[in-house]
């Protein structure tokens, strides 16, 4: 339907391993460490941004980048997912530490 309106290269969420909405993660396959970490990054993004801002960044990221792979929220999650064998719990810095790679000031996604 959306492709008929001129939208191209839309993400196919039915083919993704998992999807997160707020603090609910639905997976089509058993969780692996990297998959769980990726989805927990999205949980944290939702927590810090709220639903409206997360959706705005996600959609605008897709529209400006032209593909799922260019969405900053996904780049952020995939970047942390690939941390060298780091246990999931250690991938989230405490509030006292810098939040490099996470949302900062409630709206900015850092590289």
Offer a quick outline of the entry:
It is built from 2 helices and 4 strands, in the order ββααββ.
Topology, element by element:
Layout: E1 18-21, E2 24-27, H1 33-65, H2 72-81, E3 103-104, E4 108-109
Helix pairs in contact: 1-2
Report on the architecture of this protein.
The chain is α+β, with helices and mostly antiparallel strands and 111 residues long. It starts with 17 loop residues before the first strand and ends with a strand.
User: Biggest sheet, in brief?
Assistant: 2 strands, antiparallel
Which radius of gyration do the C-alpha atoms yield?
14 Å
Count of alpha/pi helices: 2
Helix content: 25-40%
* Through-space gap between termini: 34 Å
How many domains, in number, for the residues? 1
Count the strands?
A: 4
Query: Oligomeric status of the shown chains?
Result: single chain
- Proportion of residues in β-strands: 5-15%
Strand order of the largest sheet: 1-2
Q: What is the general shape?
A: globular
Q: Helix- and strand-based class?
A: alpha+beta
Query: Which spans have pLDDT < 50 for at least 5 consecutive residues?
Result: 84-111
Report the mean per-residue pLDDT as an integer: 75
List the helices and strands in order.
EEHHEE
């Amino acid at each position: 339907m959306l492709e008929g309106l001129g939208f191209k290269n839309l993400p196919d969420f039915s083919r993704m391993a998992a999807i997160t909405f707020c603090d609910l993660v639905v997976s089509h396959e058993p969780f692996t460490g990297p998959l769980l970490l990726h989805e927990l990054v999205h949980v944290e993004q939702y927590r810090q941004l709220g639903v409206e801002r997360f959706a705005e960044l996600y959609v605008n990221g897709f529209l400006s980048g032209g593909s799922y792979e260019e969405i900053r929220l996904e780049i952020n999650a995939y970047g942390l997912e690939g941390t060298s064998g780091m246990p999931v719990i250690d991938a989230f810095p405490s509030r006292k530490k810098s939040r490099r790679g996470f949302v900062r000031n409630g709206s900015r996604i850092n590289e």
